[in-house]
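Hi there,

I know you've been waiting on this one. I reran it after we fixed the sequence typo, so this is the corrected version. Both the input and the resulting structure follow.
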Amino acid sequence: MPRKKIILFIVEGISDQTCLSLALSRLLSSNRVQFKITNGDITTEENASPANISKALGSVVKSFLSGVFKPSDIQEVVHLIDTDGAFVPDSAVQPHPPTSGPNTHSATNCTYTTNCIYTDKVQLIRDRNAKKKQILNKLSSTTQVLKNIPYSAYFFSCNLDHALHNCNNLSAADKMKKAEEFENQYAKDLTGFVSFIKDPVFAVSGNYIESWAFIKLDTNSLKRYSNFHLYPPLSRSPTANVP
């Protein structure tokens, strides 16, 4: 029997993997599902740029391979990305109201609403957004990594917690709690999982290119949206499948 090819999901944190790994492993049972956690957002790292993001992405995949696997073992790389409000106009990045104080749950001291980012580091976040949106423009049009491994990027807005749990300012502990609840609910309910991901409440209509164009408009990258339902195994069937 031929060895199963790997579908590699790149995510920012362990709670993202906890949410999705069991359900996706069952959904994609004809393949071997693996996760690579980047422990942060590679699109906002200090030296990240549109010019070098493909190389950085390749380094993430090489780190996963780590001498154990070959590039040919990977069928595709699926990158799950938080938008973090990157496409909003600068006017939507504002100082915290005097009565609220900063959000200590975030390294950037950000509080996300569906229309505004509140922060005590306004210019830093505006600069972050400027860089991140350029990098997301690059990633959303990238189709291969390490020369010939198929690659696609899907967004969760304003972050994965917002899309899946309808909570966009969770602490690390609450992220994990919500992730475990999501895992318990959907790990053995593939039909329910796929139905949830396709829920028109947050699943953006249109095709892949159109969904990325949509999330870049106005303050959409702060609102509760995702295009992960367009990932082919999800869009085709609520049962186990192969891309």
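Quick highlight: The chain has a mean pLDDT of 93.

Best,
R. S.
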